[in-house]
Amino acid sequence: DAKTTQPDSMESTEGETVHLPCSHATISGNEYIYWYRQVPLQGPEYVTHGLQQNTTNSMAFLAIASDRKSSTLILPHVSLRDAAVYHCILRGNQGGSAKLIFGEGTKLTVSS
Amino acid sequence: GGIITQTPKFLIGQEGQKLTLKCQQNFNHDTMYWYRQDSGKGLRLIYYSITENDLQKGDLSEGYDASREKKSSFSLTVTSAQKNEMAVFLCASSHWGGFYEQYFGPGTRLTVL
Predict the structure, then answer these.
(1) CB-based contact, A88 to chain B, within 8 Å
(2) Which residue from A89, B42, B52, B102 could staple onto B92, CB 3.0 to 4.6 Å apart?
(3) Residues A76/A17, Cβ–Cβ less than 8 Å
(4) How confident is the model at residue A112 (pLDDT cuts 50, 70, 90)?
């Protein structure tokens, strides 16, 4: 399974727009890019996902490079509730590719 | 909407003990998963079940058994708890297919004395 690389941590201030990068140089054609976030003592929470096109929802904007070797999760106007570990994950769409392969993610700290 | 319920929330066991964790979902999802998370680490897949009566091994299946009793429930058994083991076991569910997101339960926190 292809791997992702993320910075260990990032810091921000309430109201800022945060860009969380993810590198996935060996991504294969059928792999989706998923983002989850997790706060202590809770299970991961789905944020967004995409295959090739940029996507947007109420939580975030996902920008995917044209070669798909990297992506950026953009969190507009972050609040204290957005402080979490953000995981960038690749997930296949066939057979045993059901699993999500979590790395250690990026710990986002938000200060007031 | 829906919810995933995991029982118990906290589990304390003894070395060598057989321990069972339970998971229920009311999303009507086909597929259910069990992951293990060690402190400060990412998740590792133990077992998953594509549909009722199906069982597939993940990367960490040794030392565990699983059972998909019905569509809404998926159990995980630690066959022999290891001394000083501490981990969080997370259950998730989704429709089958890589384009469907997985929803997670709150986890069962295991401590082995």
Answers:
(1) no
(2) B102
(3) yes
(4) very high
Distance of CA A79 to the CA centre of its chain: 17
Distance from CA of A26 to the nearest CA of B (A): 18
pLDDT tens column, B68-106: 989 999 999 999 999 888 899 999 998 876 667 889 999
Sign of the dihedral defined by the CA atoms of residues A90, A93, A94, A98, in that order: positive
Name A21's Cβ contacts closer than 8 Å, sequence gap at least 6: A6, A7, A70, A71, A72
User: Is the bond into A76 cis (omega within 30 degrees of 0)?
Assistant: no
CB distance A108 to A90 below 8 Å = no
Quick: pLDDT tens for A60-106.
999 999 999 999 999 999 999 999 999 998 887 665 556 677 777 99
A53 in contact with chain B, both atoms CB, cutoff 8 A = no
Structure tokens at B88: 């969080």
